[in-house]
Amino acid sequence: MTRRSRLVQVLLGSLACSATVSFASPSGRVGPIDESKVRTGLSAQVARLVDEAGVLLRLDPVPLPRAWVVLRRRGERLAGGWYSGSDARDALIRALVELTAKNPKLESRVDAIEICLPHSQESALVRKGGAVLSNVHRGIKGIVLENGEAKVMVCPTAMVAGNRSFDNVEKRFRDEHHISLSDYSDHTVARTFDAYQFLLRLKPEPVIIPMFRGNQLIAQSAVNRSTARRLKDLMAKWLISQVQPDGRMIYRYFPSRGEEAKGNNMIRQFMATVALVRLGKETGDAGIAELARKNLRYNLDHFYELNGEHGLIRYKDVRLGAVSLAALAIVEAPFRKEFESYELALRKTTEYMLRGDGSFQTFYDNRDSTDNQNFYSGETQLLWATLYEQTRDKAIIERIQRAFRYYRAWHLDEKNRNPAFIPWHTQAYVKLLLLEDHPEMREFVFEMNDWLLSMQQNDGDYPDTYGRFYDPKRPKFGPPHASSTGVYLEGLIDAYRLAVEHKEQERMARYRDAIMRGLRSLMQLQFADDVDMFYVSKRERVYGGMRTTEYDNGIRVDNVQHAFMGLQRIVKTFDGEGAW
Q: Which residues pair with residue 546 across a beta bridge?
């Protein structure tokens, strides 16, 4: 099954998300449109397509006599809005007649039409200081707000296209109509509704495509060797495309706005460098290797400083994780010799920040700092494990073992236990365990990853969320995020390899199942065609990138880099043993 033949069998059923509750069109019913007006042009073409497909006749619950219709060309919005009619079909055709009558030149420019047909209204509670609905409903539910004469109705596809939350919709409503918070909470009537979502693609061939949350659902059965390779290859293309002529990697991008975001994070930037280095090695492409070298040079030129014998990565402050991952990028690079002085100074810093009891100082400028232990400790262990893999230096393994003893006890203490700790330490320890067996370390890897599986979401209201690593019952561990799923897969594939090494058949099966479910989640998040980019005008900037969540389309560099590096090992491992 190809990515875009997925779940056509749920054309209708999966689009209806709640029980039927009928309500009148906000603007009231109107008489049917004069069919003589739709004999030619865009409206006639769409009318024939809709009638021949018979889609609207099969919708249950029956949609309201209202349609949200937006004309687009390569993602750019040309014109559109809400239109009423005698029924949903009439509203749709009426919209096209009116839109093209106002501007006849639109007909030749339109290549796709976004359609949203509301149904199933429910009353909603207006909360003081909180949104009407939580984020997971974004792109599924629409919202109606009324306060006196002020009214707004926002459909799910518009929220997807604008990357808007319910909180954002409510705030904009208050601001535009000058409604105070107290007036809003006391006098606003809120309703939510479900909606059928379609993209009418007119070129190259006319076709009606049902959408779910402005996208298409990926079936678990669609995950196989071919689709996993495509997922990885598109991520590789995205990574390459984000490196600017001077070597800078774009950190974050907003597809809805078509703008690069402000801000930066050097831990994620140097992990992106590692990803480019690994991509260059995998492909043997000298051009990619040079791109990685240029990116590393840019990062060091702009964020590296030397303090005595200590190499530092400073962006606002100096974090152990950034120092360790900068060193790792150099250690793994084929052009390592060129950056030897940087590497040695950065390694000196990591050694300096290890305390006698095995714990790490996490911020260079604060000897007492202990923040972000779940991340920085494992990132440093991964650097040292990579160095030990190369050198078998006893001083390095002694440091690793000292930190291991401390952090095993620290992590297993219930007040510290956190899934973010697991993938970094897993990757570090499996590097060692595939060289030589350390029974306590091996059991710790299995114990961590067995527990991690409980964090994977495999049920809930909306199937596009399945496979991500987020437990709604334990929100204390943070919100769902593409980068989290990616890094957990990096750790899980290494835990799987360790289970294979020790013939742990039951663990192999559980880890493999979790990996396959995680791949489905990543496939759901990738910008991969003109359907999931129906609202994106600068498609070359997002193609192959990964949304942050199913309902937040922002792309951050670590959304891609972690998933890509996990996919590299997953594809290689599963290909090698025919595990697909």
A: 526
The closest alpha carbon to 440, from 404, 493, 392, 485, belongs to 404
Here the tokens at position 34 are: 């004069």
DSSP H or E run through 214 = none
pTM above 0.85, yes or no: yes
Written as one letter, the residue type at 41 is G
pLDDT beyond 50 at 1: no
Question: Which amino acid would we find at residue 278?
Answer: R
Angle at 283 between CA 277 and CA 286, to 5 degrees: 70
Alpha carbon dihedral 474, 480, 485, 488, in 10-degree steps, equals: -30
Q: Under DSSP, is residue 423 helix (H, G, I), strand (E, B) or coil?
A: helix
Assess contact for 313 and 343: CB atoms under 8 A. no
- Residue type for position 70: V
Write the Ramachandran bin of 110: left for phi over 0, alpha for psi from -120 to 50, otherwise beta.
Answer: beta
Give dist(CA 251, CA 249) in Å, integer: 6
CA-based diameter of the chain, in Å?
Answer: 86
- d(C-alpha 578, C-alpha 407), whole Å: 36
Shortest CA distance to 342 belongs to which of 315, 320, 313, 314? 313
The token pair at 452 is 């991690």
β-strand partners of 68: 82, 116
Sheet holding 304-307, edge to edge: 304-307, 310-315, 317-318
Neighbours of 88 (CB within 10 A): 22
Percent of all residues in the chain with a pLDDT value above 70, rounded to a whole number: 93
For residue 311 the two structure tokens come to 């190499």
Residue among 170, 173, 158, 165 nearest 77 (CA): 158
Q: Got the DSSP string for 446-509?
A: HHHHHHHGGGB---SS-GGGTTSB--TT-GGG----HHHHHHHHHHHHHHHHHHHHTT-HHHHH
Q: Is the peptide bond before 204 cis (omega within 30 degrees of 0)?
A: yes
Helix, coil or strand: residue 202: coil
The tens digit of pLDDT for each residue in 265-292 reads 999 999 999 999 999 999 999 999 999 9
- pLDDT tens digits, one per residue of 440-499: 999 999 999 999 999 999 998 899 999 999 999 999 999 999 999 999 999 999 999 999
Which residue do the tokens 């689709």 mark?
227
Residue with tokens 């709604």: 472
Handedness of CA 503, 508, 509, 510 (dihedral sign): positive
| DSSP count for the chain of H helices, then E strands | 18, 13
SS3 145: strand
Nearest-5° Cα angle at 110, 106 to 115? 110
Q: Fill in the DSSP letter of residue 149.
A: T
Strand 207-211, strand 252-254: pairing:
unpaired
